[in-house]
TrEMBL record:
Pfam families: SBP_bac_1. The keyword Lipoprotein applies. InterPro entries: Bact_solute-bd_prot1, SBP. Keywords: Cell membrane, Lipoprotein, Membrane, Palmitate, Signal, Sugar transport, Transport. The keyword Glycoprotein does not apply. PROSITE patterns: PROKAR_LIPOPROTEIN. Residues 1-30 form the signal peptide. This is Multiple sugar transport system substrate-binding protein.
Length: 457
């Protein structure tokens, strides 16, 4: 009887195990038939690599919604890379830099960012980024101008994948000059549009006299945003460099640099510059121009022209002009450069996934060119031209020949730029002479450069 009972229990257990096994098999079969286990395009969280992409509004907003275009990029990327989940976070130009500083300080940096060399190269020097050399073979690097590659590297390490570019310069309200009958004062009939400071002054006085309700030109000295505009303006007005050729010291406190800033101070006295420039930031300056209240803007490019277009509240034609120089010689224009970088967060899988997203954004056969056009910029690649129609893009392509090496790759530049605007304010308010302001800027900046060079060794 005992043997019979044991046999019965054993049979029951075997039947239960068999039924559980068959149920599991039927569930697996159902999943596979629905595109699950082996063919599921949405892998389980265990299989997915999740990365974060922080982005400033580098792409034109789609349907007026910031971040909507980026979401379309991610959706298209996931069609080809279903095993990578991308979490997007949009930054503002006002609060984004500080948010990045906090994230880096607390070890919560994103995996990928689309930004500019000023911050990216500083992070590269501090060892915060993953090198991108494996993504940039010689044929790619050789298709990018040395000035742009120089901004993308620290030593022989590539830390930023260059994407969109365009020289920074000025813009003018062409419609205004047509209305006051002074269009011939602008150098638009010259192929390279170069002009002298004296010619520029004549155009400013024409606005003051014939359109008294319009501010002739702009300037700003409230915060670090848009510092390239004030740098380019002053260095060309005086034919000076901002830093010396090896980036080891400030050069703008030279006699020619001082003359450039003195011109701005005098123009402010003469009512040729927006009043209260010491308390205006780059955004305030842009708004005055886009509202048709100011004739010249000092911080423009083909990229910004495109990005600013939705913000224009007056219907006028804005055209690009190089900064004037004392003798009308070729200007030195800093290049706008946007590019993508990958943070080194001690996770190889995330770094490789982020590199795939970088490659998709820049090089995908369908989306690469589409993404570039959405920035409104020229390609960083010399071989990619003719993406747009219109004289202003043609001129921007031509003005590439004026591109010079920017100071943004100097050791300690992130700190150097913080000293610039306070000294500009002092000069504009005339609490210091132009020489005193630039000498103090040089003293503080040279110390910061030396300190950073020592720390980066």
């Amino acid at each position: 009887m005992r043997g019979s009972k044991k046999g019965s229990v054993l049979l029951v257990i075997m039947a239960l195990v068999l039924s559980l096994f068959l149920a599991a098999c039927s569930q697996d079969t159902a999943k596979e038939s629905e595109g699950g286990k082996d063919t599921d395009k949405n892998p389980s969280n265990e299989k997915q690599v999740e990365i974060t992409w922080w982005n400033f509004p580098n792409f034109q907003a789609l349907d007026g919604e910031v971040g909507k275009y980026e979401k379309e990029i991610i959706a298209a990327f996931n069609e080809k890379n279903p095993d990578i989940k991308v979490k997007l976070e949009m930054l503002t130009f006002e609060g984004g830099p500080e948010k990045l500083n906090v994230a880096i300080a607390t070890n919560t940096a994103p995996d990928m960012i689309y930004d500019a060399p000023g911050r990216i190269i500083d992070w590269g020097k501090k060892g915060l980024l993953a090198p991108l050399n494996d993504m940039m073979p010689d044929d790619v690097k050789n298709d990018i101008s040395p000035a742009l590659m120089k901004q993308s590297m620290v030593g022989d390490q590539v830390y930023m994948y260059p994407f969109n570019t365009g020289p920074f310069m000025m813009a003018v309200n062409k419609t205004l000059f047509e209305d006051i009958g002074e269009l011939d004062l602008l150098p638009l009939d010259r192929p390279d549009r170069t002009w002298t400071v004296a010619e520029y002054e004549k155009a400013l006085h024409a606005v003051k006299e014939k359109a008294p309700g319009i501010i002739p030109s702009g300037f700003y000295a409230k915060s670090v945003a848009g510092d390239q505009g004030t740098r380019g303006y002053i260095t060309n007005l005086g034919t000076s460099r901002f830093l010396n050729e090896d980036y080891s010291a400030v050069a703008i406190n030279s006699e020619s640099g001082i003359k450039g800033l003195e011109w701005v101070v005098q123009a402010s006295r003469d009512g040729l510059v927006a009043p209260g420039a010491a308390s205006l930031d780059a955004g305030d300056h842009n708004d005055l121009f886009l509202q048709g209240k100011m004739a010249f803007a000092i911080n423009y490019s083909a990229v910004l022209k495109s990005l600013f277009a939705p913000n224009k509240t007056e219907d006028f034609e804005d055209v690009l002009l190089p900064y004037p120089t004392p003798d009308g010689s070729d200007p030195k224009l800093e290049p706008f450069l946007g590019g993508l970088a990958v943070f080194n967060n001690d996770d190889d899988k995330k770094a490789e996934a982020a590199k795939k997203l970088v490659d998709f954004i820049v090089n995908d056969p369908e989306w690469g060119e589409k993404n570039l056009i959405q920035t409104g910029g020229l390609s960083a690649r010399n071989s990619v031209t003719g993406l747009y129609e219109g004289s202003e893009y043609e001129y921007s392509e031509l003005a590439r020949k004026f591109i010079t090496d920017p100071p943004t790759i100097a050791d300690g530049y992130a700190e150097v730029r913080t000293f610039w605007f306070p000294e500009l304010q002092e000069a504009i308010l005339e609490t210091k002479s132009a020489k005193e302001a630039l000498d103090e800027f040089a003293e503080k900046s040279n110390a910061a450069i030396e300190k950073a060079k020592a720390a980066n060794k």
